[in-house]
Amino acid sequence: MANDLIAEISRLGLKDLNTPASASITDVEHLSSYNWIEAPKATPAIAVPGSPDLWSPPNIPFQLEKDTGYVYLAQNAALHPDSPLEPLFRALYVSHPSFDIVSIDVVTDRNNLRKLLAFVNPRWSGNNREAFTIKVEVTNNTAIFCREETKAEEYIGPNEFRGYGHSFEKECTSRKVCWSTRHHRIISYHFGGLKFVIRHETYGYVGVADTQLDVQPVDSRAPQVDNLSSVLGSLSLSPESSTLGTTSLTSSKLVIRKEGQVIPLSSTLEIKTRVAHRPLAFEDVVSQLWISQTPKLVRAYHTKGMFAVPEVEDVAAQVKAWEDQNQKDLKMLAGLIGKIRDIMKESGGRAMLRYDAVGDKLGLYRLEGEQMLPNDLPSKSQ
Question: Which domain of life is it from (predicted)?
Answer without folding.
Answer: Eukaryota
